[in-house]
Write a structure and sequence with these properties.
Length: 162
């Protein structure tokens, strides 16, 4: 009985590790992307965007992954007043619904120096695209911090007088 208990106890740590790995794997496969974007209308009349959007992640020449997105408020269109701005969030389906090859590419390149572009369509059928943005949130923040640091290092800010 004691030997059996030792055997079970020794296998318990391995079973717990496998359970933890499985939890992480399930959580990763159930992940999704949420993209928040500032939408600007520089035209003289209001514009309405459709709820679907596409985020294309450019890995290299001719190599990309498309993430189909929906506005969080997909029941209505997104209206942007003339010469105005609005903020909108788009969400993807769970990553586990993507083809296995696309999942592998996303997992491999997440956090790498690749970029993405958001594409939306207005109710008149015109396609609009965003600026290039780093695919990883951390890289995007690093780009902003680098720009802020470069501005802060300008001689005009280093003197005691304004």
């Amino acid at each position: 009985m004691i030997e059996r208990q030792k055997e079970i106890t020794s296998k318990l740590a391995l079973a717990e590790k496998k359970a933890d790995d499985l939890k992480i794997s399930i959580a990763n496969s159930r992940s999704l992307f949420k993209i928040t974007s500032v939408l600007t209308n520089s035209g003289g009349s209001a514009i309405s965007l459709r709820a679907p959007a596409l985020l294309r992640v450019y890995i290299g020449t001719g190599n990309y992954v498309d993430l189909k997105l929906l506005s969080e408020d997909s029941k209505s269109s997104l209206e942007i007043k003339s010469n105005g701005t609005s903020s909108a969030s788009f969400v993807s389906s769970e990553i586990s619904t993507l083809p296995k090859d696309d999942q592998d590419v996303i997992n491999h390149y997440w956090g790498q120096n690749v970029y993405s572009i958001l594409f939306v369509q207005d109710t008149l059928g015109e396609i609009h695209s965003s600026n290039r943005s780093p695919f990883s949130e951390g890289l995007y923040q690093k780009v902003i911090y680098d720009k802020l640091a470069a501005e802060a290092a300008k001689p005009i800010y280093l003197s005691a007088e304004k």
